[in-house]
Amino acid sequence: MRRLQFLGSFALLLTLQMFSQQANVVGRVFEDVSGDEISEAIVRIEETNLHVKTEKDGSFTFKNLNLPLGEHYLIVEHSGFSKQRYPIVINEDETLHIGDLFLSLDITQENLQISTISLAASDLGDDDVSVSNISGLLASSKDIYLKAAAYDFSAAFFKPRGLDNSNGKILINGIEMNKLYSGRPKWNNWGGLNDVQRNRVFVRNTKASDYHFGGLGGTSNIIMRASKLRRGGRVSYASANRSYKGRVVGNYNSGTLEGGWSYSLLLSRRFGNEAYKRGTIYDANSFFLAVEKEINKKQSLNFTGFYTPSRRGMSTLITEEVADLKGIRYNPNWGDQDGDQRNSKMRQTEEPVFMLNHYFKITDHIKLNTNVGYQTGFSSTTRIDNGGTRLEIDTNTGESYYPGGARNPMPNYYQNLPSYHLRNEEPTPADFQKAYAAEQKFINDGQLDWEALYRGNRNFTGTNSVYAIQSDRVEDSKMMANSILAAVINDNMTLNARLNYMKLTSENFARVEDLLGGQGFLDVDFFAEESAFVTGIAQDLAQSDLRNPNRVVSEKDRYKYNYEIDAETYDAFAQMQFKFKHLDFYVGGQVGQTNYQRTGLYENGFFPGEASYGKGEKIDFTTYAGKIGGVYKITGRHLVDMNVAYAQKAPTIRNSYSNVRQNHEIITDLKEVKNQSLDLSYIYKSPLLNVRVTGFYVGFQDETDVVFYFTEDLTGLPATDGSAFVQEVMSGIERKHYGVEFGAEMQILPTLKLKAAGSIGHYIYDNNPDLYLTSQDFPETQLCFGDGQTDMKNLHVPGGPERVFQLGLEYRNPSFWNIGITANHFSNSYINPSGLLRSDNFALDYDAVKFANFNEEDARSLLKQEKFDDYVLVNLIGGKSWRVGNKYIGFFAVVNNIFDEIYKTGGFEQTRKSNFMNRSEDFDRDNGALFGNRHYYGSGTTYYLNVYFRF
Q1: Which residues pair with 698 in a beta bridge?
Q2: Are 95 and 26 in contact (CB under 8 A)?
Q3: Structural contact between residues 793 and 784, judged by C-beta atoms closer than 8 angstroms
Q4: Inter-axis angle of helices 107-120 and 144-151, to 10 degrees?
Q5: Phi, psi at residue 819, to the nearest 5°?
Q6: DSSP H helix total and E strand total for the chain
Q7: Average pLDDT of each block of 10 consecutive residues along the chain (951 residues)?
Q8: In whole angstroms, what is the distance from residue 211 CA to residue 590 CA?
Q9: Residue 18's pLDDT is what?
Q10: What is the DSSP letter of 65?
Q11: Is there a contact between 70 and 90 (Cβ–Cβ < 8 Å)?
Q12: Hey, how many other C-beta atoms are within 10 angstroms of the C-beta on 646?
């Protein structure tokens, strides 16, 4: 009836159009089922740039905006609802009272976001780099290309513009959540809270944001205020096979109650003994509470707290040989213990977050938001420590020594594989027999032998363990505070400003988690006696803490390393936004100060005294940033968008110290990281076709990168043995990323949509960075080779495919069911190249003399950066919902990679054999290299099924 009345009014108004521009349009927006007012919905006049937002009571007004007269369409849209299009006629000197407009819940979009984010959060390998695709999911928006990047491309670890999530900013209620240690947001801190995260304001790349200067990868503010969460409840259950087996969620939002109170509660659990990768246990719970009190019509106070403890088994990268023998689902980290799977690498996170947010509407045009947040708790990752020993005294010399230690117990250790027994140039029949036996043992079992670890500890003389489970543990306490100002100066000008402060105290240490049947673990470095490059008393060198030598630790004790990092950041941001008839533009700037200081709580034997103990030097960075950009509106349908930015940022804690666990040493010539960005877009919008094509460029200078590994082939050391566990420091890194991205969406039929998206990028190193090594094996020395650089220029920056293309169809039936299919092509992915391999060390023998048979052509072949094969992933989505009164029941399903394509998503070059002679010998073996590249493989066919009840 409402629709017939409205169309009748529309037919009458058609005869009344005039040409003067003095007119007003007013109305209100409600949810069609509950009847709740919808605030902050966007109401715009199609094919113009005129738009307003609805107020708290759902009302909106177009007033004194030079409205065009005649027939037009009013577009009403809000996140989580289906967009509506209403016909209107605007007449001269009249106020058009639209009345009540209604939006329907977009169940499809709601569940797509929830399910896909949950799926992609599973891809956790050995470090946080592997979860960088999560930023794309949080950055999902109505932009066609970004939706494809978030929901389809992210499964292949695609990074828009080649930027990982340290280049984007994630905010919750205006508070930045990126970690100071790595610069990345930590998804586990709010995992499982999807149902209260649907209110997100995303700003693409460096465009103007009301909350933050932003980052190259964009800015996403997740609004988790109690009053802003849609009133009602939701209970859902999900089944999947990618990260967890099951997920159950219960959520209720009160909406605004009498007295101005509102609250929101959520409980969820995700669980599974293993998912796509073998042995990857998943055990996570999530708790959320938000309470808000409207103090008066101008002020509101909101509390938000969430706690999401999680524990999960990790997988790792594997070589081609291992993948051929065991398949891409193989995970060497686990084994059976008493009939149960046990993973040696467990990641655990318990870091609750508490926020207090004050919202103050000073005037109708000035708003001030002040936020205070606190985060505490710990995160840890376990691994096997096979360096257990005991203290003995030589009866002849009276000197101390440390017998013990054991070989690497991992089943994929190179000496356990068939290739190890066939490493000689002419293998004997006995070698082939050993290789066959190793192959069969690995194929038929190939998992961690927990009983062997316990047996090794029982057989070791004394009561100490030779094997133990160690955790690398971080206990952070972080305080955050900011104030965000938004002031509408006039109809054309808006001021945004922000003052921000953050303080971090971070305790970092190793801890004994399980002695595996032993009674203690001697806290010394068993390998100290093998350090042939240093002089000194082995007993002193071996000490993790000279102030407490030869200490035997028990379970839950700290050992090995123990230090604290104190960090502070201050920054101020200001931005002006201007809106005119044909041009919208902005200009913004930021200035900041960051400082770090390490405090050593152990005095390390290799770095005695002030080199490791007490307070180290304080590092200070002052940063500046500026940006400008705008949209030129050729017509209501044709737009040109340009954004330019220059920014400095402090290097992360991770990339400021060469060996932060053992000493105070700061990276040489450490500088602020610089970046520049430029993008230019053409945008076309119409009821039937939406297109965006963007060309982009991003440049980086003065980056640093620190990696740890063992190598056998170092030159220039005072010994014939060139092996050492080292820290590789690469500094002065320059990169450039450029390319084109596009998205197009065509409404073929009212229920059928064709969509296409893609990106063609080129992400390369733009110089030969400086490179040096540090190590406890050569303390107080920075080991350089030749000119001190590494030949990285024009190599590809790793991190997912550079080229992606999507073609898809989406059908939405008016009876609340939908189905969609996309085909996604990926190409130009590259392995992470080793800096040491491309330094002068590669061509030199142990005596620093170039190999006599060094061949440039062979060297180029050995060092050619591996390019992964192209692949296509086909994904299918669908769902159905039923409305029963004012409630919804429905389901949603996703099937990814329906043709079970096998593909590589990343990897790195091993550096154990790191000079020309030894790498040539290894890679020329007829039966395979012992130390070939290690890869991470994407998942095969995976599914996600979600059923829900909304009330």
Answers
A1: 677, 737
A2: yes
A3: no
A4: 50
A5: -150, 145
A6: 11, 47
A7: 40 37 80 74 82 86 79 82 81 82 66 43 42 40 81 84 91 94 90 88 91 91 92 93 92 92 96 89 96 94 97 93 94 93 95 97 94 97 93 78 86 94 90 94 94 93 92 97 95 94 97 95 81 56 92 96 97 95 94 97 94 96 97 91 96 96 96 96 91 97 95 81 90 97 93 95 96 91 93 93 95 87 96 95 87 91 95 94 87 93 93 93 89 92 92 90
A8: 12
A9: 36
A10: S
A11: yes
A12: 17
Which of 250, 188, 200 minimizes the C-alpha distance to 225? 200
Strand order in the sheet with 42-45: 51-53, 42-45, 70-77, 84-90
In sequence order, what are the beta bridge partners of 867? 830
Cα separations in angstroms, 394 against 277, 401, 403, 648: 49, 7, 11, 57
| Tokens matching residue 480 | 């955050």
**Is the Cα torsion angle 507, 510, 515, 520 positive or negative in sign?**
negative
Give me the amino acid identity at 95. Answer: T
Local structure of residue 548 (DSSP, 8 states) = S
**In terms of Cα–Cα distance, which of 643, 661, 587, 651 is closest to 620?**
651
H/E element, 266: strand 261-272
Residues 6+ apart with CB under 8 A from 852: none
For strand 310-313 and strand 299-307, is the pairing parallel, antiparallel, or unpaired?
unpaired
For the record, the structure tokens of 196 come out as 């209260």
Residue 419 CA from chain centroid, whole number = 36
Q: Report how far residue 174's alpha carbon sits from residue 517's, in angstroms, rounded to the nearest whole number.
A: 49
Q: What are the tokens at 222?
A: 């997740």
The three-class DSSP label of residue 294 is strand
Q: Cβ atoms within 10 A of the Cβ of 564, count? A: 16
Asked if residues 462 and 505 have their Cβ atoms less than 8 Å apart, the reply is no
How far apart CA 222 and CA 176 sit, in angstroms, is 10
The answer to whether 223 and 201 have CB atoms below 8 angstroms apart is: yes
Q: 478: part of which helix (H) or strand (E)? A: strand 468-488
* Rounded-to-integer distance, Cα 670 and Cα 674, Å: 12
Q: Measuring CA to CA, which residue among 736, 710, 703, 929 is closest to residue 834?
A: 710
Rg (CA), the chain: 30
Q: Angle 123-129-134 (CA atoms, 0-180°, nearest 5)?
A: 55
SS3 state of residue 648: strand
3-state class (DSSP) for residue 196: helix
User: Tokens representing 246?
Assistant: 């099951």
- Cα torsion 526, 529, 534, 538 to 10°: value is 90
**What are the two backbone dihedrals, phi and then psi, of residue 48, each rounded to the nearest 5 degrees?**
-135, 175
DSSP states of 5-26: HHHHHHHHHGGG--S----EEE
Pull the structure tokens for residue 816: 């609340």
pTM: 0.88
Q: Strands 169-172, 219-222: parallel, antiparallel or unpaired by DSSP?
A: parallel
Overall size of the chain counted in residues: 951
Q: Which residues pair with 353 in a beta bridge?
A: 306, 375
Token pair for 752: 């059928």
Structure tokens at 28: 């209100």
- How many C-beta atoms surround the C-beta of residue 223 within 10 A? 21
C-alpha–C-alpha distance, residues 624 and 646, integer Å: 8
Nearest Cα residue to 184 out of 169, 172, 162? 169
How many whole angstroms separate alpha carbon 826 and alpha carbon 832? Answer: 18
Cβ atoms of 189 and 177 within 8 Å: the answer is yes
Closest CA to 763 of 732, 742, 792: 792
**Terminal-residue alpha carbon distance, the chain:** 25
In three-state secondary structure terms, 687 is coil
Q: Would you say 243 and 253 are in contact if contact means Cβ atoms under 8 Å apart? A: no
* Contact between 875 and 899 (Cβ < 8 Å): no
Question: Is residue 315 helix, strand or coil?
Answer: coil
